[in-house]
Every structure is written in structure tokens, then in C-alpha cells.
Amino acid sequence: MLPVLLLILIIAVSLYDLRTGRVPNGVTLPILAAGLLVNFPGNVSLWLISMILYAAWQAGWMAGGDTKLWLAILWLLPDSTALMVFATFFATGLLQLTLRRLKRQPLTGIRSPGAWRTIPFLLWSLYVH
User: Fold this and answer.
1) pLDDT one digit per residue (tens) for the chain, 129 residues
2) Measuring CA to CA, how many Å separate 94 from each of 3, 74, 91, 102, 109?
């Protein structure tokens, strides 16, 4: 039931992100806090993914709101996250590059809303559970 509720919330956040270019802290921080309360101290792969997401944010590859959203979902739904995170980022990144190529846009240097990337991850979580 939790993945279904998260999926509905993430679709709404993705639409908001698409329209405004922002992911509200009022959504991400309570989910992150709940995930940390339920799953702390976590496992090695969860901490490794968290550090990679932090590094991606520091490098400018992800916006802060998108990073917090991913961290919140990862900590709340930690089962089999490592493989799915990388598969989701690979598939959605490939989709973004393909769409940019078709639109004749530059492949790099374009910041686009990224909250939608969590939707395939949550759909996979629903399928697995």
C-alpha cells in the first residue's frame, strides 16, 4: 500500500516540478525523516547510494530537490534499491538523451526537472512487492 501512496504523491510532485522547476521540501523532508526513523541504520548499499546521490548533487548533475526526493524514497523503501536506482537512472537518462537528440537540443548543459525519474522506480517497487 505504501508504494501506491508514494506513487500518487510522486506523480503530483513530478507535475509540480515540471511546472515550477522545484521539488518542495515540505514533501521530501517528512518522507526522508520517516524513512530514517523506520530504517536507520540501514545497510551498506543504502549508505553507498546516499553518498553517490550526494556526490551527484555536489557535481551539479542533480538538483537539490530531486536528490532529497530520491533519498527520501530510498530510505523509506530500502529493499533491492541499489540495482533499481542505477537501472532507473540509466533508462531515464537514455530517454532524456534520445528526446534531446530528436529535438535537436544540446545533449549537455540543459537542466530539466527530474522528479519524474522516481516514477519508474516506484512502479518497479509495486511490481516486486
Assistant:
1) 777 888 888 889 988 888 888 999 999 999 999 999 998 998 888 898 899 889 988 887 788 998 999 899 889 887 767 677 777 877 877 887 788 789 888 766 666 667 777 777 777 777 765
2) 25, 22, 5, 12, 15
